[in-house]
Specification:
Blueprint: H1 24-50, H2 52-71, H3 74-92, H4 103-114, H5 143-163
Helix pairs in contact: 2-3, 2-5, 3-5
Length: 166
């Protein structure tokens, strides 16, 4: 007796699934990946552009310190730091009346925007109206004290540039 199953044709496998065109899920996944990458690139570029003035000001601050080490004029350094802080503040706060601020108001502004009270006393006090006074006595111009004051002012200037609230 012959087995009736032997009379059947062999199994016929279906054609393999073609990789193209991909299913709708792959299209949506690819589109989502492109959108996420584009958003990350856009937001990164926006953040880099928004903080460019900080990087430029920090470089300028280091340049001012290097120039001071060559010329040694403390008053010139203090005025240059004040000018740099004013330029940076004008860039960071275009809607506020930064340009007209001077003296205690200017120091208070710097302290308020950074949360650093060092602008009201210590090294930051040099940015007030005292920089317009006559030359200091020779005792006050001791080079070691100047270097300490200049380094402290440079430090507080750089700190404000990097950490002010924009």
């Amino acid at each position: 007796m012959q087995n009736p199953l032997d009379q059947l044709r062999p199994n016929h496998l279906p054609d393999p699934v073609n990789w193209w065109p991909p299913a709708i899920g792959w299209w949506l996944g690819g589109l989502l990946a492109v959108l996420v990458i584009a958003a990350v690139v856009y937001l990164t570029l926006k953040a880099v552009r928004r903080t460019r003035y900080r990087r430029q000001a920090a470089r300028a601050s280091h340049q001012l310190l290097a120039e001071f080490q060559q010329h040694g004029d403390e008053r010139r350094f203090i005025n240059a730091c004040n000018r740099l802080l004013k330029q940076t503040a004008l860039q960071a706060y275009p809607d506020e009346p930064v340009a007209r601020l001077h003296g205690k108001e200017w120091q208070q502004f710097l302290a308020d925007k950074s949360g650093n009270r060092g602008f009201l006393q210590g090294a930051g006090a040099a940015l007030g109206d005292s920089r317009y006074r006559k030359e200091r006595s020779s005792e006050e111009n001791a080079s070691e004290e100047n270097t300490v004051a200049v380094n402290a002012l440079h430090s507080i200037t750089l700190s404000w540039i990097k950490k002010h609230h924009a």
